[in-house]
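User: quick one, fold this
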Amino acid sequence: MAIERISKVKNHRIFRGFVWPQDLLDFKEKNLFYGWNGTGKSTLSNLFRSIEKKTPVSEGEVEFVISGNKVDGEAFATAQGLPQVRVFNKDFITDNVFTSNGSVTPIFFLGEENIEKQKQVEKLKGDIDQAEKEGRDKETEKRRSEKALDDFKKERAKSIKDLLSSSGGNNPYNNYDKRSYQVKCDELLKLPDAEQKAKVLAESDLDAQKKKKESAPLDKLQILKFSYPDTQQLTVQVVALLKKTVVSAVIETLKDDQELSGWVKTGLAKHKKEHSSDCLFCGQSLPDGRIEELEAHFNDKYNAFIAEIENQSTVIKSAIESLKSCTPPNRLGLYDHLKCDFDARHQDLSNEIAGLKGYLESLLAALKDKAQKPFQSIERSFELVTGNVTVISDLNAVISKHNQETDEFQTAISAARTAIEESLVAQSLTEYQQKRNEVDVVATALQTASDKATALRTEVREIEKDIEEHRRPADELNADICSYLGRDELTFEIQGSGYQISRNGTPAKNLSEGERTAIAFLYFLKSLGDKSFSLKDGIVIIDDPVSSLDSNALFHAFGFMKDRTKEAGQLFILTHSHSFFRQVKNWFNHLPNQNKKDVNVRPGRFYMLTSNVTGGNRSSSISKLDSLLHEYESEYHYLFSLVYEAANSEEEAGLQQNYHLPNIARRLLESFLAFRQPSKSGELRQQLDVIDFDVAKKTRILRFLHTHSHAGQISDPEHDPSILIETKQVLNDLLCLIQKDDDRHFDQMKALVTK
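Assistant:
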């Protein structure tokens, strides 16, 4: 594929209304553009670069003819089948030579892709610094929040220890510390909220627990061991005795009078003992048989029955006496919280004992009555009263509980301490959790910053590795820069992922414009050999690669460029340097088939970029190369023609049309004097001083050139109306000076430019 022509460039920067002239030959394999500064070289190279980058041209109207097809500038991004293009210009230099100021010695990076990656690296390193700073800030914040949490745990632990520790003994709270507090906090936090809140004791309950943990155990109490009398059996026995009678000879008087019977019985025993036949009471003689009669009344069965009643009474009295042994322990020996229950059970037991005692006494009274009436059968029923064994067991249950608490007193104290601890911890959970959350939040943020920095460092390493893998070997660059400049003062050394450039063995901290251009151009030429670009099928555009190079370096640069681009499918070279132009022109003029009579088949084409004023606006155009530039090695002939034409023009030119003439005149005069006064080359005033010419005119010429020109290049318009007044006259004076100093030369030049 090939670019055949630029059909039109309208209202695009300096190209206001360019249309490809009908008589202008299309581009060929080799194309050379010559144009002074300000004639549109940069604009033209940027249009080529838009094709390379596939970026649309939205300003004005731009149209190329590529391999027979018209391609609009706005379609560069989407057009199919665009050729491979590589453009070297100022933008390429800017995009492909980058200096990193991250170290004392600058590190250079070559290549747009590598530069973008390096810029990305430097941005990432800035992000790393920011992440590390954030990490340091979070680390400080973390230490601060951790200390706050630690101080809080210490304070809470100390308050709990002070409350629950004791002297001696196996008390775990004697060693209570922040770790113990945290364990309990974490334990309670696992519980549901309701259970956590339930751990907080009311003030009264808390006081009770405090009191309990400060108390000492009481002695154990004896279990009440008591069995109730068998009132049922006793009742059966009493009822049987009451029904029983004594069978005997009964003296009626004594039978009916129990008091008398007892008195007689006592007296009978006394008379028998003393063997008295007289009555000891009245002194009278006892009637015969009287003693025998009384003994019959009080016989053995009677006595035995009475003894039986007495024995049963004794049994009942013993039972009554046994009730006195039912004595519970002293309530003062009980734990306070058991006393109320104990008192109630004790009262129940007292009531039971009182009831039994009353019942037994009723049985005893019945026996006493029976003893007075042994000869009578007594029918009597009793409402049986038996002892409630539950009352005793309930009382013993209270005593057992007391004894159990004594046995488990240490456990109870431990439970009280635990309850107090859990209450105090539960009260502080909200604040503890808040402080712990603060630590967790800042720890998470610290980890995030650390992870970010780590990820960024990894990314930087990967990018730098990629840069290193695609960087040109330093020895190749050293050989190329030496060949390009014709000297070895600049050398490349691998440094990190870039290059350290040295000048004569010393790090080059400031590269000149020419050196930067040279380095960029070397990289550009090197890139033409990349696998991504086919040189023989591609299009290469080179815009002023020799800026600021001396003549010797320029010659080497040209040779280097020629060698690296000769195989290009299509080559475009744009330059404002006449020296470089001349070398490229000579190269193209000696191409195979270049000298054939048919210009349409010649591989080398020559074009000129010029600017003129249209409608008050400066505008550039492309035309064929001026014959004077084409035919002669020196630019002098062309400059002479421009000065001569302007000096002899009959048209009144405007400011915009005249602005470039002072510079052209200066270049013409410098070239002329360089041959006429070679010994004073470079000193325009001294060279003019030795020229035999009107002093006033020489002064005017010198002032005009110094005021309105910039040596070596075309200046931007000087908005100075004096140019309109002076230009034509000064140009005529200049021509007169040349004519006077060398009329033969002047005549030959005049004949050349006017033919």
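User: anything notable?
Assistant: The radius of gyration is 68 Å.
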